Automatic annotation (TrEMBL):
Similarity section: Belongs to the D-alanine--D-alanine ligase family.
Pathway: Cell wall biogenesis; peptidoglycan biosynthesis
Organism: Chryseobacterium takakiae
Upper classification of the organism: Bacteria, Pseudomonadati, Bacteroidota, Flavobacteriia, Flavobacteriales
Active site (record annotation): 16, 167, 300
Keywords: ATP-binding, Cell shape, Cell wall biogenesis/degradation, Cytoplasm, Ligase, Magnesium, Manganese, Metal-binding, Nucleotide-binding, Peptidoglycan synthesis
Family matches, as PANTHER family: D-ALANINE--D-ALANINE LIGASE (PTHR23132), D-ALANINE--D-ALANINE LIGASE B (PTHR23132:SF23)
A Pfam short name: Dala_Dala_lig_N
Domain ATP-grasp: residue ranges: 123-322
Record protein name field: D-alanine--D-alanine ligase
């Protein structure tokens, strides 16, 4: 049986591309070379290219996502392993393009990716399945903002966040009504739609769920102990938070979190890696957001959870590739 060719597709158009390159490297290193020929592809706003083993760049042909290397050899990939965080790999843009050219890929389909990248719509869908979230106010750029009304409705403090943005960019915690307008301006720099959410005072947990060998499993529940006010960009990527796996919660709470995380995963029709964030208040998990392409660098939460669960990174990644290969075009 000839080996299948796998392109590990990394990069992206947002500031998260730096993390994506590290995630891609881990997947590239981990995939079983007895089963797959593994290649690196980098997708950036200005160029899409293939990197050979000598780190030489060859441009990707966007017509069919192929690459022409030395001596005019054309290379097509059986599967694209999508590990782009943020746009265009986490919001459905790349998936729609791959669907259009008939390219198989790992992870969520176009619709699930687009839906889960939109916090407001995700929480609206999940509320139908009985999954609670914070009270919130949704605003579009250009709408009039009435701080009195918002604070009366949500109380203080509140979180102001872009509706569609990865990696905690543009988020502020607002403790005084006078700070609200400035915080909305920061969030509107990242997106034309923003959410203002009531503050949930409790433990933050991050839950890794994957579909592995035909069922959705919870890899682990990680407790996030921020050194900053909240789990912001710095805390996420520059180590300004302590991550404790498994989280320090009793069995009853753990079982409830696992059940809700699986329900969220299945209700949204997810596939592949996912990491959902919750605040636990009085033992109840309130959903903050769902990530369909969470960080997968060695320092990231998901690989750490897999290690504790007892699934090797090679098996976890191989499982993704096999699922993608079995998908019907």
């Amino acid at each position: 049986m000839s080996k299948k060719s796998v392109a590990v597709v990394m990069g992206g158009y947002s500031e998260e591309y730096v993390v994506s390159l590290k995630s891609g490297q881990l997947i590239y290193d981990s995939l079983d070379r007895n089963l797959y020929d593994v290649y690196k592809v980098v997708v950036l706003r200005d160029e899409w290219y293939f990197l050979d083993e000598n780190n030489r760049k060859f441009q990707i042909n966007k017509g069919d996502f192929s690459v022409t290397t030395d001596n005019n050899t054309s290379l097509k990939f059986d599967v694209c392993f999508n590990i782009i965080h943020g746009t265009p790999g986490e919001n459905g843009i790349l998936q729609a393009y791959w669907d259009a050219i008939g390219q198989k890929y790992t992870g969520c389909d176009f619709y699930q990716s687009a839906l889960t990248f939109n916090k407001k719509d995700t929480l609206a869908v999940l509320s139908k399945y009985g999954i609670p979230s914070a009270k919130s106010v949704y605003l579009r750029k250009g709408e009039e903002i009435n701080p009195d009304e918002i604070i009366e409705n949500l109380g203080l403090p509140v979180f102001v966040k872009p509706n569609q943005s990865g990696s905690s960019l543009g988020i502020s915690k607002v403790k005084e009504k006078s700070e609200l307008i400035a915080a909305t301006e920061v969030a509107f720099k990242e997106d034309d739609e923003i959410l203002i959410e009531s503050f949930l005072d409790g433990m933050e947990v991050s839950v890794g769920v994957v579909d592995y060998k035909g069922e959705a499993i919870v890899l682990g529940i990680t407790e996030i102990v921020p050194k900053n006010e909240f789990f912001d960009y710095e805390a996420k990527y520059e180590g300004a938070s302590e991550e404790i796996t498994p989280a320090r919660i009793d069995d009853e709470t753990r079982i409830r979190v696992e059940e809700i995380a699986k329900r969220a995963y299945n209700s949204l029709g997810m596939s592949g890696f996912s990491r959902s964030e919750y605040i636990l208040m009085d033992g109840i998990p309130y959903m903050l957001e769902m990530n369909t392409n969470p960080g997968f660098s060695p320092a990231s939460i998901l690989p750490q959870q897999a290690k504790i669960y007892g699934i090797s990174i090679a098996d976890l990644c191989g499982n993704e590739v096999q699922k993608a290969l079995n998908k019907n075009k």
